[in-house]
Every structure is written in structure tokens, then in C-alpha cells.
Amino acid sequence: GSVTLAFGAEYREERYKLEAGELSSYVDGGMLNQTCPGCDTNPIAYVPGFQLFRGFAPVNEVDTKRHNISVYFDLDAEFDNNWLITGAMRLEDYSDFGSTSTGKISARYAFDEAFAFRSSVASGFRAPSMQQKNFSSISTQFVEVDGTLVAQERGTFRNDGMVADLAGVPTLKEENAVSLSAGFVVRQSALTVTAD
């Protein structure tokens, strides 16, 4: 048989930046709505922005980054042309989510040239993306109140911002997974069938 060793390292830096748009896309025009229910005695300001999607305002601005350092190792060992066993490991350190390790072990046994069985067990890790953590926007939605459509401001807010804190929204966490798989390969002349 044969043995193959692979290894490597990676440094990655991610940056997420959201800047305010054109002033006229989010500024309040100063006019008051006196035609909505109750607005005849208590007028409210018209919704700012262009059409229904308000432009990004200074309150939405963010400029943040994170870095990740990782190393990985992979070892493949083939025994007597029937057994193939593979092991891999990856160690990572995120500046905002800490350290983690993931790995995979897999095996493949060929009964003959026509049929082989394979299986694996692996762990996985995914940190929330920069957009998931930092995106925010405000838009206008029309809601029916007493038979009249009334414009209301709705928002998507940053996970680590004040609105999320006040609402009791927990901070985003990384995703961890464990996967198991098994399958087979069948070869008959020009036809190959695989199932997992």
C-alpha cells in the first residue's frame, strides 16, 4: 500500500463595511401626515427615504473585521489494495469566536473491482458570517389599521446592537455538527453507480 500526508496553514482576514448612502435616500423631508387615523389631531412625520426601501443611514454604518488562523493535517493510508483509511484534522482560531477543532475519519473497502463499501464520521464548525453579525436596515411596510393602510418603520438590526440587547436577543453562536455517512460503489463496464 501507500501513505500520503498533507498539511498546511491559512491566515484569513474578513472585513465588513456598510456606509451611509445618498442623503436624500434616508433624510426626513419635514412634512407631516394629517390623513392617517388619528393624525388629524396628532400628525406624524412622513416616512423618509425613497419609495419603500430607505437608503442606508449613518445609524446603519459599520466597519469591522476579524481574522482566522488555521492549520490542517490529512493522512491517507492504503492497505493491500483493498482498504483505504483517511484521517483529517483542522485547528482554527477566530478572533471573535475562539478556537475550535474539526476532524474526519473515513474508510473504504473494495471487495473486488466491481463493488466497494465506504463510510465516514466527521465534525463540522461554522462561525456566523460578518453579514449575519453586522447588517442592519430600516424599511417601510404598510399595515392596515382600522381599514386604512398606515406606513410603519420596520428594521433588521445588528445582533450586537442596542435594539437586540433591549429585546433580549442572545448573541449569535457558532454552529457545530457531527455527520455520519455510509455508502457503496458498483462498477459494471462503462456504468458506475454510487449511493450514500
Topology summary:
Elements lengths: L1 E17 L13 E2 L10 E2 L16 E18 L3 E12 L3 E13 L4 E12 L3 H5 L2 E9 L2 E9 L5 H5 L8 E14 L2 E5 L1
Antiparallel strand pairs: 1-4, 2-3, 4-5, 5-6, 6-7, 7-10, 8-9, 10-11
Question: What can you see in these coordinates?
Answer:
The structure is a single chain. With 196 residues, this protein is mostly beta strands. The chain contains two helices and eleven strands. The strands form three sheets. The protein has a seven-stranded antiparallel β-sheet. Strand 4 and strand 5 form a beta hairpin.
Total number of β-strand segments?
11
Strand order of the largest sheet: 1-4-5-6-7-10-11
Structural category: mainly beta
Distance between the termini: 26 Å
Q: Count every helix, treating DSSP H or I runs of 4 or more residues as helices.
A: 2
Helix amount, in percent? under 10%
- Average pLDDT rating: 87
Shape descriptor: elongated
State the major sheet.
Answer: 7 strands, antiparallel
CA gyration radius, whole angstroms: 28 Å
Low-confidence stretches: none
Q: What amount of the residues lies in strands?
A: over 45%
In N-to-C order, the SSE pattern is EEEEEEEHEEHEE
